[in-house]
Design brief:
Strand 11 and strand 12 form a beta hairpin. The radius of gyration is 20 Å and the shape is globular. It starts with 12 loop residues before the first helix and ends with a helix. By secondary structure, the chain is of the alpha+beta class. The protein is built from ten helices and 17 strands. The strands form four sheets. The chain has an eight-stranded mixed beta sheet with strand order 2-3-13-10-15-8-7-6. Helix 5 crosses helix 7.
């Protein structure tokens, strides 16, 4: 790589955190965003909306009550916690423990799974950072391990850590559990939209819908007043299931211009949020919430997000059944692969791709 292109490959943040007293300038957020009260975030005015998945999928009146709660959560926040999801706590605990073990390994062992081809060309899967598209892009205080887990026959196991040995089996089992949760939630959402078919949203995924697991490791940061773990963004997928750190908070959602802190999630509830793809499909009835992660001066933080995306060649557009003369399409159609590319471009400029798609 030419010397003037070295900015495209940022340092591994975990290594940086171990040696610096002050974060490098590339990580510092703009002056106007540095007000301590803004970064600290506000407490949520109410407890995080919580949906009991067993009740939501039941065949009695409790399902209607839970569906009402789901509608309220979607319309007010765009995210909610889901409990009674059927995934064993032991599997979730063991997977998070195995992923911590991976991030604590020496750098040379982790670099075997690098997301850089020949040390310079970025690819989605593997260990490292998000892509850097411009020299003035502000970098996030976070390292990733990003793996495609579905379709199962397209897994690139060269990117999957072989140590600890339990990692691959645990991620496989967790993936199957999350698939059931995702299907149940999207069928319930289809009923809320009064679609004729409960699979009205699931049917939008196309022949090659995929699932990506992203493990995010946030090292302690010496200046949390100047640096973000993840910059403000909307998820570009249909739906996200997040297994958050039980002990260290950091996730914040924005509503009406105010950032609200999500407290650490205990009891292995999953946090679910709407993605841009679903905002478009629902013609704006369900909105993908703007969120970010703040840093912590004393503690590391870990999370695991499962992103559910359509076929990359699929055109994302409002579901025809939701449109009529009184409710015209509010978003342009776009191929999912083009949406992903546009998302990275807008994200690097601290802008939101969804705004460019509104009609």
């Amino acid at each position: 790589m030419a010397a003037d292109e070295s900015w495209r490959v940022p340092s591994i943040v975990q290594e940086l955190a171990a040696i610096v007293q002050e974060p490098p300038s590339r990580y510092l957020i703009p002056e106007q965003d540095r007000r301590h009260d803004q970064l600290a975030g506000a407490e949520m005015p109410d407890p995080v909306p919580t949906i009991d998945l067993q009740r939501l999928l039941a065949s009695d009146d409790s399902a209607d009550e839970e569906a009402t709660e789901l509608r309220s959560a979607l319309l007010s926040w765009g995210f909610f916690l889901v409990t009674n999801h059927g995934i064993a706590t032991s599997v979730m605990d063991a997977l998070m423990s195995a992923s911590r073990d991976f991030f604590r390994k020496p750098l040379e062992e982790k670099q075997v799974y690098s997301n850089l081809i020949e040390g310079k060309q970025w690819q989605l899967e593997g260990y490292g950072n998000d892509p850097v598209t411009t020299q003035d892009q502000i970098l996030d205080w976070c390292d990733r391990l990003h793996l495609m887990v579905e379709p199962e026959d397209e897994r690139n196991l060269d990117r999957w850590p072989g140590h600890p040995e339990s990692f691959r089996g645990l991620l496989h089992e967790y993936t199957l559990g999350c698939q059931r949760v995702k299907d149940g939630i999207l069928r319930a959402m289809a009923r809320l939209l009064e679609l004729d078919d409960d699979d009205g949203i699931l049917g939008q995924f196309g022949d090659k819908g995929s699932t990506h697991a992203r493990f995010s490791y946030y090292p302690a940061c010496p200046r949390p007043d100047l640096v973000l773990g993840v910059s403000p963004h909307n998820d570009v997928c249909v739906l996200t299931l997040l297994l958050a750190d039980e002990h260290v908070g950091g996730l914040q959602f924005q509503r009406d211009g105010t950032w609200y802190c999500v407290p650490p999630v205990h009891g292995r509830a999953l946090l679910v949020n709407v993605g841009v793809s679903l905002e478009i499909m629902s013609n704006g009835i369900f909105k993908g919430p703007l969120h970010r992660v703040v840093t912590n001066s004393e503690k590391e933080r870990m999370s695991l997000a499962m992103f559910y995306t359509t076929d990359f060649e699929k055109e994302i557009e409002p579901i025809a059944e939701l449109l009529d003369d009184k409710r015209p399409a509010r978003y342009k159609k776009i191929k999912f692969k083009d949406l992903v590319a546009a998302h990275h471009e807008y994200f690097s400029k601290r802008e939101r791709v969804i705004e460019s798609l509104k009609i």
